[in-house]
Amino acid sequence: MAVYLPLVAVLLAGGGSAKIVLSVSLAIGTALVVLLIAVRYGQPLSRFAAHESDEIVLLTTFGAVLLVAGISQRLQVSAGIGAFLVGIAVSGPMAQQTHRLLAPLRDLFAATFFFFFGLQINPATLSPVLRSAFFLGGATMVTKVLTGYWAARRSGVDQRGRLRAGMALVARGEFSIVIAGLGAGLEPQLGPLSAAYVLFLAVLGPILVRASK
Amino acid sequence: MDSTVHDVSRILIELGLVVVGLAVLARIASRWSFSAIPLYLLAGLAFGNGGLVPLNVSEGFIHIGAEIGVLLLLFMLGLEYTGGELVDNLRGGFPAAVVDLALNFTPGLIAGLLLQWQPLAAVLLGGVTYVSSSGVIAKGLTSDDLKTLKLLQCCLYWC
Description:
The complex is a heterodimer of chains A (213) and B (159).
Chain A: H1 4-13, H2 17-49, H3 54-74, H4 79-89, H5 93-120, H6 130-154, H7 159-169, H8 174-182, H9 190-211
Helix pairs in contact in A: 1-2, 2-4, 3-4, 3-5, 6-7, 6-9, 7-9, 8-9
Chain B: H1 2-31, H2 37-47, H3 59-79, H4 83-114, H5 119-130, H6 143-156
Helix pairs in contact in B: 1-2, 4-5, 4-6
């Protein structure tokens, strides 16, 4: 994502090849710098920001997420990667506290996120793409199971575990929606096809996981 | 003045109905121990443009909420890793990430090209099929499964 999203964002913005190379390197460079800061200085930063008051920690972390995400977006890194890196930087006891405080907020806003994506799609545009979504879903269900199976075997997981790991990867969700959202102006069928696709696999994924137990 | 008061009350009522509606869906999903995400999506389809009951006043507000939602999803994901783990996973999981990219990005890309979309739209469709969701599945996995997934997904965020 840290490479793919900036690349696509820059390609969408258009421009000559020199400009594209420059923007992409800037984006990846920024992501690496923030990653370095998060890995190297995560602990001291967390110690500095830590506080026993829930209120203070909530405001600090939520504010930091929005701020870093906004700046990342400006630099074409994609807001999500910025937010992910803030999560990496928060460590130690503060990570647990933050988890407890922000989980309810995430639940509220994540529900809004999926709802909003549905809002933007006109149901009438779904029927022409249903068949493609179904075939694509079937094909990529198989390829994801293979991927998970292979990766789990590599790390020495037993037979059943391999299959479960594969099944667990089948579900697509938030990332697919973010990516589909980028191309809304580019191809009118991308949104409806992705919506049908995500619906299909978000339903099928959990069923497969349960069946493989 | 009167009209703003009216607008605010209307927005509150719409948002309240939306959130209560999502709560009902989440309740149904948990009853069947299922992910509520597909239901949220379907609810959006029903209330959106061309749906059963179009809802237009609070869409701007919901849009910002949606943006914050995806940020918080990713932030909480990052919270699960320490910096050291991330670097280790990146090293160990690189081959898996390459396999994942080859197997799961390609079908979307090919489908986009077969549908005669612009190349860039096909690249986006590749991205749609490529990345697994971390939010949909969490229940029902053993710690070993989770470790494998963590390894794989961690690489995804960097490719």
